[in-house]
Amino acid sequence: MALAFLDRDHSVAHAGYSRWLVPPAALAIHLSIGQVYAFSVFKNPLLALHGADGAAWNLKEVGYIFSIAIAFLGISAALFGAWLEKAGPRRAMFYAALCFGTGFLIASAGAATHSLLLIYLGYGVVGGIGLGLGYISPVSTLIKWFPDRPGLATGLAIMGFGGGAMIGGPLASNLMAYFKSAGQPSIPYTFITMGILYFIFMMFGVFTIRVPGEDWKPEGWSGHNKTSALISTHNVDVSHAWRTPQFWLLWIILFTNVTAGIGILEQASPMIQDLFKGSVGPIAAVGFVGLLSIFNMAGRFLWASVSDTLGRKATYFCFFTIGPILYFLLPLTRSDKLNSVPFFVIAAAVLLSMYGGGFATIPAYLKDLFGGFNVSAIHGRLLTAWSTAGIVGPLIVNGILDHYVANKMPREEAYPLILHIMSGLLVVGFIANLLVRPVNEKYWLKDQTIPETAGAAH
Amino acid sequence: MADIQQKSSPILVAAAWAVVVLPTAWGLNYTVQNALKIFTKPAATTPANTAPQK
Predict the structure, then answer these.
(1) What does R_g of chain A's alpha carbons equal in angstroms?
(2) Single pTM value for the model
(3) Residue A371's closest CA among A300, A441, A303?
(4) Interface predicted TM-score (ipTM)
(5) Residues whose CB is less than 8 angstroms from the CB of residue A125 and which lie 6 or more positions away in sequence, other chains included
(6) Quick check: A341 and B38 CB within 8 A?
(7) Bridge partners, A444 (sequence order)
(8) Nearest to B31 among A16, A208, A294 (CB)
């Protein structure tokens, strides 16, 4: 078969294959799909498009494109996680590249014909499936290559998702400017170019990814990490994992951490301008958003790496103690109180680092509790917490802001309420994290011949 | 195991990292340049007719 190279058997690493070739493969996927965080650069150009009848789209309609993509990320990660464990990472990454690239091409046709439905289908549904497949595809492979440092390994890859916007944003802006100056339809041509470029970049990951051989382990590694009651030496099948209280506690942990992060991310630019009227303008606000994206990315790597020595529960303990305090103090920094832009910026940056850190540490937390056997599939199901937070977070933020605007109250008065709700949500996360205990042995896989570093079919 | 591990060429490993690090560095530089603007105070009073168009 032409696609036989995608088979798991063809992606087993030969003896001597350096495990340090695997993170670049994972990063190629995550840096590409992380482009979704920069989708906002297309908003104004899409709003400026007009159909043959002169019709234009509104902000709400254009906003649904991103929401659909994130929803399908969660749905596809949950649905295809178990399949990925059998098919192997290379096949999953190939389909991710195909879906993500094709999604751009379909969206291009939508922009060219002024069909929002085609854009929803392309970037939202097809591209969103690519996001979900791509997000989970390298995770368990990285954990198997780095059983001695699973947090560092997954942090590296998931850092790429945070950093993808830093490439996708300026790439899209520059391409649109280029095609516009060349007198070409800027959005359709930009979508086509990005679809092709991202497909090629992701294929680098497809060709580079390898799964370790069955008996492989890192040089000098004893086969066991630091022991703890919360680091299981047993495996739990995905069909049992999601029935455990631990799965749902981790679901709440991820949900609360993401929802709180969205409280800042969703309104970062207007929030800083509203809270510091006269001292922070639109250009500086763009800089603030850029700074947050850097901390979001760095936090993914740093916190996940720290969790290898600190422990996952202790790492989330930090998030859920520092986080509520900072969210509570954040409104006090505004111009009519402390009037401290640096305090606001630093606090927001630390909060965003913990938002990213929460994403990146969760796969290693899952691996600790449920073993490495089905970690991608379990991770996929857990990502429904992200999709849910992606809906609930903006609902809280926009709902409160709309209420203040509708009642002719100053917008800046809404932020303390929003940020204090986020603080409260993190307290819920704190309790959930506190309740995490080792998985009951009744859920363990009976066949303990499955090696810790090998997956179902890896 | 140590001998086997060294079979992947370090140049190949460095090249693979370069493929992902170079675009990231480009994006990071672009973002940092923008982020620095937050620490630049806007002009206190700018006459309307001399304000930049964008």
Answers:
(1) 22
(2) 0.85
(3) A441
(4) 0.82
(5) A68, A72, A103
(6) yes
(7) A236
(8) A294
